[in-house]
Amino acid sequence: MASYNDYSDEQLSSMLEAGNKLAFTTIYNRYWHPLWVFAVKSLRTEEDAKDLVQDVFSTIWEKHTNIRIHTSLKAFLYKTMLHLLIKQVKKTKNAQRFYEQLQAHFDQYSDWQQSPTEQHLAETELIARFEEVVAGMPPKMKAAFMASRSEELNYQEIANQMGISRESVRTHIKHALKLLRKQLNSIVATFF
Predict the structure, then answer these.
(1) Same domain for 85 and 31
(2) The domain spanning residue 168 has which CATH number?
(3) Taking residues 147-170, what's their average pLDDT?
(4) Which of 14, 93, 146, 175 has its CA 20 to 30 A from that of 164?
(5) Number of domains, the chain
(6) Which residues constitute the domain of residue 50?
(7) 27 against 126, higher pLDDT
(8) Is 183 inside any structural domain?
């Protein structure tokens, strides 16, 4: 009887598609390190690279019943990692853009006659309050809001992901924005 290490990538791919855990483990052991080396070169930090490679394998296992590998297994793994890396970069850019929008909102209400230290404290308080408001949202509202802002998913994608209607997603996001406006406007008013 052959060891799983003796199977070709094509054989392992077929077994993975059928849900074979030993095939998945063999693929993991075979490709974890090469993917990690590539990720370190892309991300520049070992910890972020480890997280990315883990995300690759988690995604593959979660979706193994829907996976159809039409290229080489190696190419498929690298393509999956590239997709997740791009998604991560988008999230980072979206978070940065959101904080820039938050800063612009803050600037709108400010006469900036404060010292730089006071400005920094006010900004820090505003960001902390934003995070507090989001953390305190009901779970579905928070999930819908974060999916729309952090992951840039559209309402239909969020609805599919959450298993709710598109209209429910729209309502959750509308209420989240209303809550944020109310809470952030009240804190901005206390500073100015």
Answers:
(1) yes
(2) 1.10.10.10
(3) 86
(4) 93
(5) 2
(6) 4-89
(7) 27
(8) yes
How far, in Å, CA of 50 to CA of 39, rounded?
8
Tokens read off for 85: 């890396």
DSSP code per residue over the chain: ---GGGS-HHHHHHHHHTT-HHHHHHHHHHHHHHHHHHHHHHHS-HHHHHHHHHHHHHHHHHTTTT----S-HHHHHHHHHHHHHHHHHHHHHHHHHHHHHHHHHHHHT----S-HHHHHHHHHHHHHHHHHHHHTS-HHHHHHHHHHHTS---HHHHHHHHTS-HHHHHHHHHHHHHHHHHHHHHHHHHH-
Q: Which residue has the higher pLDDT, 190 or 50?
A: 50
Classify residue 80: in a domain, yes or no.
yes
When the pLDDT of each residue in the chain is averaged and rounded to a whole number, the result is: 80
94 part of a folded domain: no
- Cβ burial of 132 (10 Å; 0-12, 13-18, 19+) is exposed
Whether residue 58 sits in one domain with residue 9: yes
Whole-angstrom distance, CA of residue 128 vs CA of residue 122: 10
Can you tell me the distance from the alpha carbon of 134 to that of 77, in angstroms, rounded to the nearest whole number?
34
On whether the CB atoms of residues 176 and 137 are closer than 8 A, the answer is yes
Shortest CA distance to 24 belongs to which of 72, 73, 71? Answer: 73
Per-residue tokens: 154: 């559209």
Residue 61's domain is classified under what CATH number?
A: 1.10.1740.10
Q: What tokens does 119 get?
A: 């400005």
